[in-house]
Amino acid sequence: MIKSMIHILSIALIYCGTVFGAGFASGQEIVSFFSSHFLWGVVLSVFVGFLFSFFGYAVCSKAKEFGLNSAKEYFGFLFPKAVSGLLHFICMAFLVVSFCIMIAGCGTLFKEQFSLRPMIGSLFSLVICYKIIKNRVGGLARFNAVITPFMFLGVVALCCVVLTRTDVDFSLLEQGRPHKAAFSGALYLSYNLVSAAAVLAPSAAIAKSKRQAGLGGALGGILVAVPLVLLSLVLTLFPAFHTEQLPFFALICAMHPKLKLACAGLLYCAMLTTAASSGVSVLARVKPKFTGKYAAVLCAAAFAASFVPFDVLVKTMYSAFGVCGLVLILGIVKSILRKQ
């Protein structure tokens, strides 16, 4: 029973850690996709949170049932060869870019918080990522078992600190436009689901049964939903911070300057979990039972690439990822409906 719970929780924490990227923890994604739509955005965040849980269950249970141990195998199960090949290529390209961007972001955070050269922060982060990635899914599970609860509880606690202030004016909630909110929510779910599916497919192997895998995916979706709804509500109530590059970070620092370091720690952990998840997913595709040498090559390439400006590339990849995610959602729904 205890081992079963550990397997379920391991998958859930990997799922949560994958979605819980720097954009999520900083509030940047939340403002773009939810809070900018005010009350409708908050309502939609509840529905999107439910869908994260639903699709998490669907991906993990199917991956375990049919022995789909990589993103390529999972996409191949859902789609014809040509479609799955294109989807997989874009997915891997995005994960590589995501890995490099997170490492670069870690370097920038070290510069801003400790006045150190970005290269030092990037190197330090790559050493941690190397130790995680070389141990494949097992290493990722152990890392997320420590870091993800800290991130989850940290964000929830900070949101509660803001919401319990006596000067919070809930009348600031406005209606917004439901059709625009719905489109934003669908796009957010779709591009996160592609990267999550790439990580969940191999992670489902942790479970000993289809039921365990499915419950792990469902629980992971719930762990994503709670901070998603809280962040949406908090940032909707403080529209003055919507223009900040890191809205939630700026809000907490303005209200409680002493919590600045805690926020920086959350951001750093979020970037590390995203980088580690991306790295494991990419190498699992290159060689399912990859060794430390492959992890070292990936980390070295990421260090070199972290100095390159990725602005245009990231914008292009996010757009492509959103479209691929919508296709993936259709494929998952089809796999649920068809009889195997």
From TrEMBL:
The protein depicted here goes by the name Membrane protein YkvI
Q: Do you know which PANTHER family this protein is assigned to?
A: CONSERVED MEMBRANE PROTEIN, MEMBRANE PROTEIN
UniProt keyword Transcription regulation, yes or no: no
Superkingdom field: Bacteria
- From which source organism is this entry? Congzhengia minquanensis
Q: InterPro entries, alphabetically?
A: YkvI-like
Q: Where are the transmembrane segments?
A: 37-60, 86-110, 116-133, 145-166, 186-207, 219-241, 261-284, 291-310, 316-337
Alphabetically ordered keywords of this record: Membrane, Transmembrane, Transmembrane helix
